[in-house]
Design goal:
Helices cover about 60% and strands about 0% of the residues.
């Protein structure tokens, strides 16, 4: 456990002490509980799509575009070549 020093405005400190008393715990424990509660309410964003979390429409559009390309260019073909192009070249 590490010891830290924090500065709080008087009303915030007064409120924290009151909450600690109401919950039969120390000031340290009430601060730890508040941090744990905030961590549960605000889970970290997904590392892969985290940057896109606020852009669901854009993600949908990108994925739809990917699926259209995949349908037009199956994975067993050269990228950028459709089956029709390959047939016309033979």
């Amino acid at each position: 456990m590490e010891k830290i020093e924090i500065e709080l405005e008087s009303p915030t400190l007064w409120r924290a002490r009151g909450m600690a008393t109401d919950n039969n715990c120390t000031l340290d424990e009430i601060i730890a509980k508040a941090i744990e509660k905030l961590a549960r309410e605000n889970p970290p964003k997904d590392r892969i799509l985290g940057g896109w979390a606020d852009e669901p429409e854009l993600v949908d559009e990108i994925l739809a575009d990917i699926m259209r390309d995949r349908a037009a260019h199956p994975l067993n073909q050269k990228f950028g070549w459709s089956q029709n192009l390959e047939e016309s070249n033979t």
